[in-house]
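Dear Dr. H.,

I hope your travels went smoothly. While you were away I took the liberty of generating a structure for the chain from your last submission, since the lab meeting agenda had it listed for discussion. I wanted you to have the full record in hand beforehand rather than looking at slides cold. The sequence, exactly as received, is reproduced here:
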Amino acid sequence: MLDIFMLPQAGPLAGGGANRHRLVPMLIIAAVCGPLQANCYLVAADPGHECLIIDPGMESAAEVRELVSQHRLRPVAVLATHGHIDHVADAADVADGYGIEVWIHRADRHLLTDPASGLSPDLAGYVAALYPQGLS
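The corresponding predicted structure, in token form, is as follows:
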């Protein structure tokens, strides 16, 4: 599933001075990826601009590459909102592919190299059944 949002430009917000606060156009692409159906987002000012890739989780790398190409985006960083596997499983692959950094809270940094360590026993069993060769 894929949703694309274009936020329209608007005038000053109520209560603010002239041009003090403005809504600006923004491209937000939401893709639902992987067996846990997690949201991955690409956020940019417009097609053809720099973008931020947010939460490239399980089985999202190919979708991210396709969307970056389709919208002529230039990734500048990967942002992981937290370290759960459905948000970081493909973060290193995506970041390495574009030569960009992964930004994540320091308390979750270890989950980038060992995403399974953040799983409950039940979810670990589910993921192990899905990926018998292990996560790469």
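Two observations you may find useful: The mean pLDDT is 83. The two ends are 24 Å apart (CA to CA).

With kind regards,
E. W.
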